[in-house]
Write a structure and sequence with these properties.
Layout (H helix, E strand, L loop, with lengths): L2 H11 L4 H9 L4 H8 L10 E4 L9 H18 L4 E6 L5 H14 L3 E4 L6 H10 L4 E5 L8 E8 L7 H12 L12 H6 L3 E3 L2 H12 L15 E4 L6 H10 L5 E3 L21 H13 L4 E5 L6 E6 L5 E4 L1 H18 L8 E5 L5 H8 L3 E5 L3 H13 L6 E6 L3 E3 L9 H17 L4 H12 L1 E10 L5 H12 L5 E2 L2 E8 L13 E5 L4 E6 L5 E10 L2 H18 L2
Parallel strand pairs: 2-3, 2-4, 3-6, 7-8, 7-9, 12-13, 12-14
Antiparallel strand pairs: 1-5, 4-5, 9-10, 10-11, 14-15, 16-21, 17-18, 18-19, 19-20, 20-21
Helix pairs in contact: 4-5, 4-7, 10-15, 12-13
């Protein structure tokens, strides 16, 4: 079916959906708009679905969500006679609607549905899937993307994002379906009354919070908990669980950024609600400055990432990167566990390939083994699962990725912003009690392990030609790169063929002289190419200059 035929079919079959139908009618004289909406189907993979909301096959809408749910339902029923699913959703526009549509499809297929009664963070879906022994979990979220996006995340029975094999099997089922004829749907309220759909009760939520609190590594030590903390949930899901966990842990001096307190899918004060970015923290820092706060915490809309800023000796606020927070937390956990004889004999830390190499040095200094995995927290979750199968889940002490995702326990299989916020506050309080600031501790780690800078740069390739352009760039890079920023390329790792037992991924790693490196990979969820710069210098200034040179040099390669 060509684009015009597909468009006309949607025009014919969407009369019952006024909003989408009007959008289709409005684009009928705009060929470019029709092409962008229908030139392909929204890709389904291990990260599920993610895209701009609107009418069309290349958009997130109720028909796409329902068809994906029918595909997942068919897949689950092939292997289980009475499967159940857990469903959660974030604060984005249409998230609750998409969650209820998902529930209606599963209910119509005889699959028991457990759905959170209110918006909840991503990790609670991973947790509830395992806690309720469900066959799968679905989270309606687009994480930190701009307001026009939404997504559909799928978890397996282990609470981890689905494997490539499972994603391919589900996709095969989706592709068999006529989007307008083959999808079953029940009425939500009717299914709720018959208990085919049930709301998840507070016992599961409280069990999740209990697990988070058990991640403390104070082991009975008393610390000052009077730090002035400003927190922003960036109009997302973090408000209830983060403030509750901190209050129960004894942190009482907490203020919330008022404009970003309540759920709002338009993110009016933060167009790109990604706590990795300085602009996402701008309002929080202003509020922290006004209130003379010590620490700023920011969680993204689905509360699986945390960004922070801390006040320095000049009363300015310094934003820490995901890598910096990660190495601080790793060292804090290792040192506390060592001091209290709570470090497992075969302790394991897990990080992604693109995450700072400094973490491996810190882990090694405590006798902790590092496992490197591909980009994506699902691979960290997968490794936790493998440890669990060997009866070694307790050996896992920490995992993180450079994009502000952290997890210190095996109770979930995805990054957890509630856990990270709790541990960051504990770490801050511990060092404050010792008369040490977070920045002083970070400087101490650099002095011990060498000064390094990790930077991530993203380059957008939108539209129907974007994917082809990114692939062309990756193909060109595979032809050979000899020098970057005046430094010779000493080795190249092409992960497309699978390296060191890792699954194949379209990623290239260039190792340079002086142990610097540049990694290039297309994003798995956005129309972007990402470069990961790792620069090492004898001082901060030298490392920064090397990083700037590497950014400029690598940018030239992506044209």
């Amino acid at each position: 079916m060509n684009i015009t035929e597909e468009y006309n079919m949607w025009l014919q079959h969407t009369a019952d959906n006024q909003e989408l139908h009007q959008e289709l009618v409005a684009m009928q004289n705009n060929k470019a708009q029709i092409e962008d909406a229908f030139y392909c189907e929204l890709a389904f993979g291990t990260a599920g679905l993610r895209g701009v909301m609107g009418a069309g096959t290349n958009r997130m809408n109720s028909y796409i969500v329902a068809r994906a749910s029918q595909g997942v339902a068919n897949y689950l029923k092939q292997s289980q006679s009475q499967p159940a699913v857990v469903i959660g959703y974030d604060s984005r526009n249409n998230s609750r609607k998409f969650a209820e549509i998902t529930a209606e499809v599963f209910a119509a297929n005889g699959i028991k549905v457990h759905i959170w009664p209110e918006l909840m963070p991503v990790p609670t879906v991973s947790f509830a899937t395992r806690y309720l022994k469900a066959a799968a979990g679905i989270m309606i979220t687009a994480s930190h993307n701009p307001a026009k996006y939404n997504g559909y995340k799928v978890y397996g029975a282990d609470g981890c994002q689905i494997t490539t094999e499972a994603a391919n099997s589900i996709l095969a089922e989706i592709n068999k379906l006529d989007i307008f004829k083959d999808v079953k749907k029940a009425d939500f309220q009717t299914a709720l009354a018959s208990k085919q759909i049930s709301y998840i009760d507070d016992a599961v939520y409280n069990a999740f919070l209990k697990e988070v609190k058990q991640q403390s590594v104070l082991f009975g030590e008393e610390v000052q908990k009077d730090a002035a903390i400003v927190y922003t949930p960036l109009n997302g899901t973090g408000l209830k669980p983060v403030t509750q966990i901190l209050a129960e842990a004894g942190y009482t001096n907490i203020k919330i950024v008022p404009e970003q307190k309540l759920p709002d899918g338009n993110f009016p004060t933060c167009p790109y609600p990604n706590p990795e970015l300085a602009e996402a923290l701008k309002l929080g820092i202003e509020y922290a400055r006004t209130n003379n706060a010590d620490l700023l915490l920011a969680t993204d809309p689905d509360c699986d990432r945390v960004g922070i800023a801390v006040r320095d000796e000049h009363d300015e606020y310094q934003i820490l990167t995901g890598n910096q927070v990660g190495v601080l937390l790793l060292d804090y956990i290792c040192s506390q566990r060592s001091k209290h004889h709570q470090l497992p004999e075969a302790a394991v830390m897990i990080k992604t390939v693109v995450t700072t190499a400094m973490a491996e040095q810190i882990a090694q200094s405590y006798g902790v083994r590092t496992i490197n995995v591909l980009t994506g927290f699902k691979y960290i979750g997968e490794q936790i699962g493998l440890l669990e199968q060997k009866g070694m889940a307790g050996n896992y002490i920490f995992g993180f990725e450079e994009s502000c995702g952290y997890l210190s326990g095996p109770y979930v299989r995805d990054k957890d912003g509630v856990n990270a916020a709790f541990l960051i506050c504990e770490m801050y309080s511990y060092y404050a009690t010792q008369g040490i600031s977070i920045l002083q501790k970070l400087a101490e780690l650099y002095k011990k392990h060498g000064y390094s800078i990790n930077l991530t740069c993203s380059y957008e390739f939108d539209g129907s030609t974007g994917l082809a352009k990114m692939q062309q760039i990756m193909n060109n890079l595979r032809q050979g790169v000899v020098v970057l920023a005046g430094k010779k390329v000493t080795s190249v790792l092409d992960y497309a063929g699978g390296i060191n037992g890792l699954p194949a991924e379209n990623m290239l790693q260039f190792t340079l002289e002086d142990k610097c490196s540049v990694i290039v990979r297309p994003s798995g969820t956005e129309p972007k190419l990402k470069t990961y710069i790792y620069a090492i210098g004898e001082s901060e200034a030298q490392a920064e200059q090397i990083a700037e040179d590497l950014i400029a040099s690598s940018k030239e390669l992506l044209k």
